[in-house]
Amino acid sequence: MISLKTAHDVEAMRKAGKITAAARALAGEMVKPGVSTKAIDRAVHDFIVSQGAKPSFLHYNGYPGSACISVNNEVIHGIPGHRRIKEGDIVSVDVGAYIGGFHGDCAATYFAGEVSDEVRKLVEVTRQSFFEGIKFACPGYRIGDISHAIQEYVESFGYGVVREYVGHGVGSKLHEEPEVPNYGNAGHGPRLVPGMTIAIEPMVNLGTAEIKVLSDGWTVETADGKPAAHYENTVLITKDGPEILTPLKGDGYVR
Questions:
Q1: pLDDT of residue 219
Q2: Would you state the pLDDT for residue 64?
Q3: Which residues, including other chains, have CB under 8 Å from residue 29's CB and lie 6 or more apart?
Q4: Would you call the peptide bond into 242 cis, given omega within 30 degrees of 0 as the criterion?
């Protein structure tokens, strides 16, 4: 069942979203050569806790970190550890914060120093695909309209859209209905109505869309070893259109 949020719920989700977005921004500032993924995870944890919130991901289904930190060919769910970021790496950071009974959820991919033009374009297209999708996050459209817009944009550049993992509803639970795929047919799926809150999160591979899960049971990599990028925000459907509850500085669709 899709949960529709009350005005009170929305205010609580704005608070959770603000903390989550700030944690993502902090992590992004730390993405530099020589920094360990564990250090970023620790900083995210300490910041979220300092705000009176809890890291949504910590111990979620057994996950050991407060942030998912995925490097280069890791698509999502990279486990923080002693790995040190190198010049030219791209690092995807996915974070969540829980406060007042609600979650925020967001992600972005960051550059460590100078990266190749090919990789820079992948990250930029992935981010823009989110904004292509959110154009349809309005009452009267369907989930499939968002999905189709993302897929059409991404595949126009020859990139692969991950199928096995998708966006989702978010609220009092980290993962709620409906699923929000990054591929699909326009005009299909649940109809969007005010009060819905969804995480739209394109996961895009430079090469094939195929992936594999490592033996740790969490880390997802591209099957061909080529880089991947990830971009995500929690979005509220309002009568006037979408509102990003986890905005990065400079993002539109913020009230």
A1: 98
A2: 98
A3: none
A4: no
- Please say whether the beta carbons of 177 and 198 come within 8 A: no
**Residue 5 amino acid letter:** K
Q: Which residues, 6+ apart, have CB-to-CB distance to 214 below 8 Å? A: 220, 221
**Distance between CA atoms of 11 and 243, rounded to whole angstroms?**
12
Q: Is residue 224 part of a domain?
A: yes
Taking the C-alpha atoms of residue 248 and residue 239, their distance in angstroms, rounded to an integer, is: 23
What's the CA gap between 236 and 196, in Å, rounded? 6
β-pair partners for 103: 98
Are β-strands 90-99 and 176-180 bridged in parallel, bridged antiparallel, or unpaired? Answer: unpaired
* pLDDT attached to residue 251: 61
Q: Domain count of the chain? A: 1
Q: Residue 111, exposed/middle/buried by CB under 10 A (0-12, 13-18, 19+)?
A: middle
Rg of the Cα atoms in the chain: 17
Average pLDDT over residues 133-138: 98
Could you tell me if 48 and 97 are in contact, meaning their C-beta atoms sit under 8 angstroms apart? yes
pLDDT for residue 9? 98
Residue 159: how many CA atoms within 13 Å on its side-chain side?
A: 31
- Which domain does 153 fall in, by range? 7-244
Q: What is the pLDDT of residues 155-178, one digit of tens each?
A: 999 999 999 999 999 999 999 999
Give the domain CATH number at 131.
Answer: 3.90.230.10
How close are the terminal C-alpha atoms of the chain, in Å?
27
Length of the chain: 255
